[in-house]
Amino acid sequence: MLANYGYQDGSGVYYIRIDTDACVDCVERGCLAACPEQLFAPMIDDYDDEVVEVREACRQRLAGHCAACKPAAGYDRLPCTAACPAGAIVHSW
């Protein structure tokens, strides 16, 4: 299942998509430690599998939370995507 977290406003579209089918097999959960803003939290999905979600309180402010990690800030990839061995995390901007 693809879970989309984020929003769209006059300045752009800001979403993080998590492929929970890929996330379920990850035991490391590297994204939890890699995100300096601690946007991610573990959760139990509808199938009783542990996956990662974007914290509710952060979903409407992704542009601000993720700004320091954007590739323009010197990263080839965002820390959360680089830390995800399954490639389950994708950013829309």
Automatic annotation (TrEMBL):
<protein>
    <submittedName>
        <fullName>Ferredoxin protein</fullName>
    </submittedName>
</protein>
<feature type="domain" description="4Fe-4S ferredoxin-type">
    <location>
        <begin position="14"/>
        <end position="46"/>
    </location>
</feature>
<dbReference type="InterPro" id="IPR017896">
    <property type="entry name" value="4Fe4S_Fe-S-bd"/>
</dbReference>
